[in-house]
Amino acid sequence: MGFLDAIKSGFLNYANFRGRASRSELWYWQLFILLVGTLLGLLDEALSIVGPTGFGPLYGLFAFVSFLPGMAVVGRRLHDVNISAKWYLVIGAVMIVSAVLAKITPWWYLIYITVAGMLLVLYWFLIRGTVGPNRFGEDPLIPAVLPVEDEAIWHDK
């Protein structure tokens, strides 16, 4: 899947958490988010419309609009490696709690749980998906076979 196809797929499937997404779809989506987010952040800064949080309205609107499609792409990518997207939520929650506890308590070493979670998710994003169909659907890298309507065209007469 190419860059523009991945962006199109991300927005067309903005709330579709079923099926599978290839590595290229995920990484091109992430590249799109990085590029547009950076450009909008710089534009907010240039227009001096950055708020007290450090984010401007253009970047904030883009982050809001792209959040759900991004979560859907991640969910479908995890499905491609035969992992339920619920694990992303569980690991994300554990990472957030451990990071907060590492910050507000003397247990600074809890930050390693956050790092371990990030490395696990990165590993899942980098490995090749299941070859062929899995419990979440067909392999996105194998083109679907179209049904043949008239077998006579495939045989010599």
Count of discrete alpha- or pi-helical segments spanning 4 or more residues: 5
* Average pLDDT over all residues: 88
Radius of gyration: 20 Å
Oligomeric state: single chain
> End-to-end span in angstroms?
38 Å
Write the layout of secondary structure elements.
Layout: H1 3-12, H2 23-46, H3 57-80, H4 86-104, H5 111-126
Could you list some keywords that capture this structure?
157 residues; mainly alpha; 5 helices; flat
Model description:
The protein is mainly alpha-helical and 157 residues long. The protein has one domain. The protein contains 5 helices and no strands.
Question: How do you describe this structure in short?
Answer:
The protein has helices at 3-12, 23-46, 57-80, 86-104, 111-126.
